[in-house]
Amino acid sequence: MANQSGIPSTNRRQLLVAGAGAAGAAIAAMAAPAVALAATSASGNAHASNSSNPQHGERHTMNTVTTKDGTRIFFKDWGSGKPVVFSHGWPLDADAWDPQMLFLVQKGYRVIAHDRRGHGRSDQPSHGNDMDTYADDLAAVINALDLKGAMLVGHSTGGGEIAHYIGRHGTSRVAKVVLIGAVPPIMVKTESNPNGLPMSVFDGIRAGVASNRSQFYKDLAVPFFGFNRPNAKVSQGTIDEFWREGMLGSVLGQYECIKQFSEVDYTADLKKIDVPTLVLHGDDDQIVPIDQAGRLSAKIVKNATLKVYPGAPHGMCTTEADKVNADLLEFLQS
């Protein structure tokens, strides 16, 4: 759980650092420049100063927004210029966007990414772990920072989150949308979605999280990044980072989130997107198959552009970071 400054509690941090051992110290040393960059950005920009937004019921501190129900949402806010807002996938947090945020902030853009409630450094309440609240939490961040003309980028569950944000809050603050390996329109098999995945798939995910999520996340990272494919270049560091982000979140929040990325129907939300939209999806996505997701979303959203990444896995923002970054930059500049 984050304290008022947005930093995870001492006990939880100590547990993670202890588990990381000597490798954690090395990672911390390498991360120092990025931390310094974030701190410099926060202290140097007027938009990072303490403020509040009583009109919307949120309170804004340096790196958290407190929502109407008292939940503190952690976010990173770097740079200046046109804002790009990122929504992460399950069971990760804002750090999953590091390759994109570092690239775009160096290109002169303002980049913002939050940790979904129950994930990462945000609070871990036993309530509100549903897509309506996730979308409203995103609205709380966007409103507190008074963002205008933002490009929203969502990966996996985050794609559902930004679609539902638009469904509930419209596009008055949004200029463009990017869906990457995103879960819309709906993942589970139903009468109206006969080509969806059977409920047994998601029951299996629930069982894995409930019984031994630590091992489950280590196992899940392999197909997530396509490391189980022939001739794949396996990165243990990437697997470890997936595990680290997953274990930082709340087992309750992550468990309840499974229903949100699998059973929520985002079709009506997609129909409300009235801004330029780019859909990026790997055709070897083993987690969110392209035929049940990206291809359908691109048909539902008005004037959406679909770009297929041949052979790319679900975790393409990491494995195909250079290509994704280039596509995001091109779309921003178009």
UniProtKB/TrEMBL annotation:
Residue ranges occupied by any AB hydrolase-1 domain in the UniProt entry: 82-317
Keyword Hydrolase: yes
Residues annotated as signal peptide: 1-38
GO molecular function: hydrolase activity
InterPro entries assigned: AB_hydrolase, AB_hydrolase_1, AB_hydrolase_fold, Epox_hydrolase-like, TAT_signal
Segments of skewed composition (Low complexity): 44-53
Keywords: Hydrolase, Signal
Region described as Disordered: 44-66
PANTHER family named among the record's database cross-references: HYDROLASE, ALPHA/BETA FOLD FAMILY PROTEIN, NON-HEME CHLOROPEROXIDASE
Protein family: Belongs to the AB hydrolase superfamily. Bacterial non-heme haloperoxidase / perhydrolase family.
Name of the protein in its database record: Alpha/beta hydrolase
